Amino acid sequence: MKVTLKVWRQSGAEDPGRFETHKVDELSPDMSFLEMLDVLNDRISVAGGEPIEFESDCREGICGTCGLVINGQPHGPEERTATCQLHMRKFSDGDVITVEPWRAKAFSVIKDLIVDRSPFDSIIAAGGFISVPTGSASDANLIPVPKEAADAAMDAAACIGCGACVAACPNSAAQLFTAAKVAHLNLLPQGQPERYIRVTKMVDTMEQFFGSCTNHGECERACPKAISVDFIAMLNRDYISSKIKNRRLAGQQR
Amino acid sequence: MTFTLDPKIPEGSLEEKWDNHRFSNRLVNPANKRKYNIIVVGTGLAGASAAATFAELGYNVTAFTYHDSPRRAHSIAAQGGINAAKNYRNDGDSIWRLFYDTVKGGDFRSREANVHRLSQVSVEIIDQCAAQGVPFAREYGGLLDNRSFGGAQVSRTFYARGQTGQQLLLGAYQALMRQVGLGKIDLHTRTEMLDIVVKDERAVGIITRNLVTGEVKSWSSHAVVLATGGYSNVYYLSTNAMYSNASAIWRAHRKGAGFANPSFTQIHPTCIPADNEFQSKLTLMSESLRNDGRIWVPAQTDDLRTPNTISENERDYYLERRYPAFGNLVPRDVASRAAKKEVDAGRGVGQLRNGVYLDLSHAIERLGRETIEARYGNLLEMYHRITDENPYTDPMRIYPAPHYTMGGLWVDYNLMTTVPGLYAIGEANYSDHGSNRLGASALMQGLADGYFVLPNTIGEYLADYLNSDTVPIDDPSFIEAEREVNDSIDRMLSVNGSKTVDWFHRELGRIMIDECGMERSRPGLEKALSKIPELRQEFYRDVRVPGEGESLNSSLEKAGRIADFFELAELMCRDAIDREESCGAHFRIEHQTPEGEAKRNDADFSFVSVYQHTGDPSTAILHQEDLTFENVTLGQRSYK
Ligand SMILES: Cc1cc2nc3c(=O)[nH]c(=O)nc-3n(C[C@H](O)[C@H](O)[C@H](O)COP(=O)(O)OP(=O)(O)OC[C@H]3O[C@@H](n4cnc5c(N)ncnc54)[C@H](O)[C@@H]3O)c2cc1C
Ligand code: SF4
Ligand code: FES
After folding, report:
1. Which of A239-253, B311-325, B337-351, B489-503 bottoms out in mean pLDDT, i.e. has the lowest?
2. What residue segments make up the domains of chain A, in order of their start?
3. Residues of A in contact with B74 (CB under 8 A)
């Protein structure tokens, strides 16, 4: 099969960037979208050009490294799918496909399709952890965790940190990413001691980089792991609770 | 550089060694720890856990990863689970049994003392991770669930859905980021280590390249820890992440670190076969499928009919036929070789005739589709996405793929390489898995090394350098190393040939999988040893690395990694020839039993092969660390 690509090229943060058109033929519908880009890059290199820079590592939807806006949609047309899991068979012969990087103020473009997502790490460094120095833990079965809580925490913890939620949000908010980590830890008994300090610090750090959430819900639709916006409601509830000073100081729940 | 192999195994009975060692090791007192700077290269499971723990202890840590965030290392892809001798099931597990299973599973080519220590600390890992909030699977009573894995007769594997590696890595990443927030770890992402700096026969720092700006820079420290993962990508197609590579350990090898058992590589039996010539990597399908799936090929060669039209008596369930006792559950190496045999004989299935069937239809008939969906739903969905085939109605196609490397930098009991002050942990060291790793044991080893072993053993070395400054980076040793790094970058950029880096990688991969993969033979390995240097020369004559060194350039990054793979590949073949026996994943067709099984030669090869670099892999000097087994009896594995 063959397709026409309109790919975003940008040499660095300062460069305004532009679209470049490439016709790519002799493709197999069984190849992945990124393998199609590999082939194009091979051809560009052999012809003396500079390949299109993009990122990917696991190529099986778990590491969160990949992430392209394809035909205007973060991670492309297939639901619950990271860019690396998208196959050419989802496109038709002769399609014109646009490919862009994540577009968000907090994620500056490094080169072509690669952006800087380090503000996510700053949010985690602010409070996305349980403070437990190595060696200080008691036997794992001393703290039973209700199965429902463990399962819900796992649903939230499945976030791969790809940033599609931010790219999809009209406000470039990072609520879904932040809420997923807050929910993962705040749902578990182990996470209770730092519950309110955690949410305050993470939200405050998030607001330094990202826009505000106005409940569009585009994030959930773009999310390759279908992280639920319900977690944002939990985030908001805990954030408000954390502002009630006495409760926070007493470390009380709810 | 002097080269000594002293494993430093502590005194005492097996059970007492780790305690004795911790007691006799010198310590660095808490107030003095802040006077030390430790460099940790790699922030996967092993590196992140080590960096976080060092920082908690009070050391100053500088950590590096070429990833954009420490949350992304290859560790994240581990699906199945992590072993620990908790015996929560009351099914007869114990530290001793985990130790025994690991030594036997490794086909008696690992060091008893290390494996026993690994089993001992395995229980602490689960406690630590649960306390961090790793959402392990639970039962209704709220306690931890277990599954059995990889043929073990007990249930000792802890898991978090099909995402155990992801959750363990995120736990370690969060511990690491906490220390970054506290200012105890200086973290450098998108920064690749390109060389180790050695002065007066000890490691004193590293050279890095900033992958965004291209800046080459020196870093000085009291000790250097490599936690840079495995090298299965030498085969081009493997289950490893695209960026995984051997450069850090290879460059350390060039600077004097002994490389142990390079040819011990594990080929995992259940992966999705390549679909097209552009295939960039292979995807693992968890081994657990073999619990319910029956593996078969058409009995006739060149039978191109669709699987469901092939009747029962025209199928060959070859594992059940050849291994009636274990059937579809034979160990990884045995299952892999058997699949290769069928495909090589012309009975392969699928468009490219490069797979065998794994058929769930019998299990679906017996247990119902719902049960199978509950057990393997995620996996089967992944399979469907990739192949566009429905595993509930048609048999799945699978084929073995390179997956894990037991070989790596040689380390002593303290996890120090042959270069003083240079440590290797996780998959980067030659590790505790002998010639074959058991399922769910790599995560355990990486976290054991990082959380519990190295933080306890590094003090012994550091104690000598109290109040001594790190070597300044304008020292000739740093200047010379930086110059070498810059020269090799310039060399690659200036060839300006006609073939892409990936082209060379694919060619190398083909040679390696054919000659140094599941089956090896002297003539095949000799052929590889003549082809690889030719390909390497062609690389330096005709590779095309577009772009420049002063900005982000992924072709340049890859070129450096492939250049190292050439040399490593040669050493792997060399090692596979030197080892005139079959053991674990290393199968030499000259050394097999009449039934076609691996035949060990304990009298002559009960040792770890450790290579010393001399300038070229073909002249590397082979040293041996003799293995003595005082606690297990060596037996021949049989799965009939
Ligand atoms: C598909 C798959 C499934 C698996 N499933 C299981 C399982 O169920 N159970 C199990 O026990 N094991 C499993 N394994 C094996 C296990 O995941 C790995 O062995 C383990 O995670 C390796 O961890 P590590 O920390 O040693 O290295 P990695 O996770 O590979 O981390 C390497 C780190 O080093 C950095 N790095 C490397 N080189 C450089 C350099 N030159 N400069 C700077 N940084 C560098 C990288 O950025 C990265 O941070 C699986 C492996 C695969 C491929
Ligand atoms: S919430 Fe979803 S879209 Fe956002 S970073 Fe996590 S996985 Fe990606
Ligand atoms: S490359 Fe890992 S999620 Fe896509």
Report:
1. A239-253
2. 3-111, 117-252
3. 57-58
**Cα–Cα distance measured from residue A206 to residue A190, given in angstroms and rounded to the nearest whole number:** 23
Q: In the beta sheet, which residues pair with residue B267?
A: B402
Q: Which residues pair with B626 in a beta bridge?
A: B607
Distance, in Å, from the CA atom of B79 to the CA atom of B67, rounded to the nearest integer, reads: 20
Domain spanning A117-252 has what CATH number? Answer: 1.10.1060.10
- Within B316-368, where are the H helices? 318-322, 332-342, 361-367
Residue written as token pair 């330096």: B540
Helix (H) or strand (E) holding B210: strand B202-210
B77-121 residue pLDDT tens: 998 899 999 999 999 999 999 999 999 989 999 999 999 999 999
Q: Please give the single-letter amino acid code of residue B341.
A: K
**How much distance in Å is there from the Cα of B184 to the middle of ligand 3?**
30
Q: Which residues in chain A (220-239) have CB-CB distances under 8 A to chain B? A: none
Count of pairs with CB atoms under 8 A, one residue in A, one in B: 213
Angle between helices B164-181 and B45-57 (to 10 degrees): 30
How many CB atoms within 10 Å of residue A11? 16
Spell out which residues line ligand 3, taking CB within 6 angstroms: A 56-59, 61-66, 82-84, 160
- In a 13 Å sphere around the CA of B526, the CA atoms on its Cβ side amount to 3
Class of domain A3-111: alpha beta
Largest interatomic CA distance in chain A: 68
Nearest by Cα to B390 from B364, B353, B367: B364
Distance, in Å, from the CA atom of B572 to the CA atom of B261, rounded to the nearest integer, reads 8
**Among residues B156, B332, B536, B588, which one is catalytic?**
B332
Per residue in B434-447, pLDDT (tens digit) is 999 998 999 999 99
Looking at chain B, the whole-number percentage of residues with pLDDT higher than 70 is 100
Distance of alpha carbon B217 from alpha carbon B209, whole angstroms: 6
Nearest one of B14, B49, B57 to B459, comparing CA atoms:
B57
Token pair 């300062």 is at which residue? A14
Exposure string of B99-135, with b = 16+ CB inside 10 Å and e = fewer, is bbbbbbbbbbbbbbbbbbbbbbbbbbbbbbbbbbbbb
Tokens 């940008």 — which residue? A10
Dump strand ranges (E) for B6-113.
37-41, 60-64, 82-83
Q: How far is the CA of A90 from the centre of ligand 1 (A)?
A: 31
β-bridge pairing A114-115 and B356-359: unpaired
Q: Which SS3 state, helix, strand or coil, does residue B87 take?
A: coil
Which H or E element spans position A37? helix A33-46
Contact between A70 and A76 under an 8 Å Cβ cutoff? The reply is yes
Domains and CATH numbers, chain B: 14-267+404-465 (3.50.50.60), 268-400 (3.90.700.10), 476-605 (1.20.58.100)
User: Which contiguous run of DSSP H or E holds residue B251?
Assistant: helix B247-254
Q: Round to whole Å and give the CA distance between A179 and A173.
A: 11
At B529, which helix (H) or strand (E)? helix B522-542
Contact between residue B185 and residue B63 where contact means Cβ atoms under 8 Å apart: yes
**Ligand 3 atom closest to B76 (CA):** 2
Contact B272, B397 (CB under 8 A): yes
C-alpha A145/C-alpha A143 separation (Å) is 6
A254 band by pLDDT with thresholds 50, 70 and 90: very low
Using the beta-carbon criterion (under 8 Å), do A154 and B161 form an inter-chain contact? yes
Is A38 in the B-facing interface, judged by CB distances under 8 Å?
Answer: yes
Closest ligand (CA of A74) = 2
How far apart are the two ends of chain B, measured CA to CA in Å?
49
Which of B328, B418, B343 lies closest to B639 in space, CA to CA? B328
State whether residue A154 sits within 8 Å of chain B by CB. Answer: yes
What's the whole-model pTM score?
0.97
B332 is catalytic: yes
